[in-house]
Amino acid sequence: MDLDAVRANIRTLRGYARGAEVMAVVKADGYGHGGLPCARAAREAGASWLGTATPEEAFALRAAGDTGRILCWLWTPGGPWARAIAEDVDVSASGHWALTEIVEAARALGRPARVHLKADTGLGRNGCQPADWPELVAAARAAEAEGAIRVTGVWSHFACADEPGHPSIAAQLTAFRAAVAEAERAGLTPEVRHHANSPATLTLPDAHFDLVRPGISIYGLAPSPEVGVAADLGLRPAMTLRASLALVKRVPPGHGVSYGHHYRTAGDTTLALVPIGYADGVPRHASDRGPVLVAGAWRTVAGRVAMDQFVVDLGGDTASAGDPATLFGPGDAGEPTAEDWARAAGTIAYEIVTRVGGRVPRVYRG
Ligand SMILES: *Cc1c(COP(=O)(O)O)cnc(C)c1O
Q1: Statement: 3-219 belongs to CATH 3.10.580.10
Q2: Domains 3-219 and 241-354 belong to one CATH topology
Q3: Which residues contact 361 (CB under 8 A, 6 or more apart)?
Q4: What pLDDT is attached to residue 227?
Q5: Which residues are catalytic?
Q6: CA–CA distance, 258 with 278 (Å, rounded to integer)
Q7: Residue spans of beta strands (DSSP E) within the chain
Q8: CATH placement of domain 241-354
Q9: Which of 74, 179, 243, 273 could form a disulfide with 247 if both were Cys (CB 3.0 to 4.6 A apart)?
């Protein structure tokens, strides 16, 4: 894991954001890169906010000594609101139930909660529908007047920002401006209005408002092929996934390889065993397709990816046990990228890096 790359990406994103502040999204263990080290690197490079999905992720940042602003947005009834308030974590409310629980917790604690009200501007996932927004805003204003909360943010999230030009983008921005205007009419004065994920940070200055919330791009990956490739966007992938060959052996023609014998050797050949499998996040869907750099060339997974290992066919080439097999990295040493694996597995690079399992040791540099 290249923390210098994370720092450089944050600086690049600050350039895209111009005046807007940057919230580094470090949910899901920093998209598999290590939430704490990446958060630290992001802070060093000027991220004034950190973003997490779950409260536990936010508390882990506090426990590691982070004292800056943190927003945590994925809550369920009975969640640890009091702890979040006590630990100075900004919380999000997408509906009346959440605001009610926040206000109760803040009253009991005798300390105001910092709340971001989330509007559903069209994503259809979390967030408050326009029909319910005036009531949520009015209740928040009343709680603010009482001193139980301070509305620090009004925010929303895109559905299709990774498809530049998609008609939903403009519609969501219009809905967001209306939601902000409604909140202001009700007397709320949020510190930050925010709507932009990575693709919007990279392609849509109109969506930057006061704060942008990039996730995947801080780890150096492009959000989608439509948005561009990492290098052209000025981003550098931070994660390299590598294993040491566990065995190299000669086999005769027609030899079946791995479970189900979906691959058979075409002739006399050399097989190399890569000791990493789907339990480590290598997608089983990439069986017979995933690219791996071994002995100076791209090889393809031969047969099925198993739980702990897979095989590549080196053809006429040779290698030795202990030689490196690089599944993906920044790409500049000739290795495939997470985007290449996403294509091979029919998924997105987000899933490739996020699913790398806990059994894989993380090594940090920078
Ligand atoms: C994950 C997430 C982000 C970051 O999205 P990227 O596409 O990775 O930049 C931003 N905001 C919210 C609400 C998210 O859930």
Answers
A1: no
A2: no
A3: none
A4: 96
A5: 27, 259
A6: 14
A7: 21-25, 49-52, 69-72, 90-93, 113-118, 149-155, 192-196, 211-212, 241-244, 247-251, 256-257, 263-264, 269-274, 291-294, 297-302, 310-313, 324-328
A8: 2.40.37.10
A9: 273
> What is the rounded distance in angstroms from the CA atom of residue 301 to the CA atom of residue 310?
7
User: How big is the chain by its Cα radius of gyration, in Å?
Assistant: 23
Q: 191: which 2 tokens?
A: 């510190």
Query: Cα–Cα distance between 259 and 341 in angstroms, integer?
Result: 21
The whole-chain average pLDDT of the chain stands at 98
**Taking a C-beta distance cutoff of 8 angstroms, is the pair 166, 106 a contact?**
no
| Distance in Å, CA 26 to ligand 1 centroid | 9
Over range 45-61, report the average pLDDT: 98
- Write the residue with the smallest CA distance to atom 1 of ligand 1: 215
The tens digit of pLDDT for each residue in 22-34 reads 999 999 999 999 9
* pLDDT score, position 233: 97
Q: From the CA of 197, how far away is ligand 1's center (Å)?
A: 5
Distance CA 4, CA 349 (A): 20
- Which whole number is the average pLDDT over 261-283? 97
Q: What is the pTM of this model?
A: 0.97
Please give the pLDDT value at position 57.
98
Give the three-state DSSP class for 293.
Answer: strand
Decide if 116 contacts 71 (C-beta within 8 A).
yes
From ligand 1's centre to the CA of 336, what distance in Å?
Answer: 25
Query: Residue 225 CB: number of other CB atoms within 10 A?
Result: 13
Which residues sit opposite 113 in a β-bridge? Answer: 149
Residue 207 DSSP code: G
Q: Where are the domains of the chain?
A: 3-219, 241-354
31 CA closest ligand 1 atom index: 8
Count Cα neighbours of 320 within 13 Å in the Cβ-side half-sphere: 1
